Amino acid sequence: xxxxxxxxxxxxxxxxxxxxxxxxxxxxxxxxxxxxxxxxxxxxxxxxxxxxxxxxxxxxxxxxxxxxxxxxxxxxxxxxxxxxxxxxxxxxxxxxxxxxxxxxxxxxxxxxxxxxxxxxxxxxxxxxxxxxxxxxxxxxxxxxxxxxxxxxxxxxxxxxxx
Length: 162
Hints:
Layout: H1 14-24, E1 32-35, E2 45-52, E3 58-65, E4 73-80, H2 90-94, E5 98-103, H3 110-126, E6 130-139, H4 147-157
């Protein structure tokens, strides 16, 4: 994921983010994963995921994978805005990737959105069969990636994870 704009260095301050992530680890996730047969087919298994963010706000998204693939998989994490539908891109899943589509909440601060993205990355890493080194962040639509994806990608590249 590339961008033409540069982030302010203070947005990537490692000590700040490490402290925030340490606080986040104290929150019970309350993760609920529910099968969605209405969105699934023979080659794409879809599940709905609900979990608590670091501040107790309930977050929502979808996870999809190909039930026929057994080896360690790449995971693609996409963020959609509050006004956009969370939809799985089945061609990605059929190709062997696991896809997470995460619905952003309206009015959330940048700091919270970054922590939300990092939390989804950790959630993806905790799913059996997903290779932590193959988790990537991606845009739901064309255009410039939002700041929370750019910041989370930079933090992850620097070894800071949720």
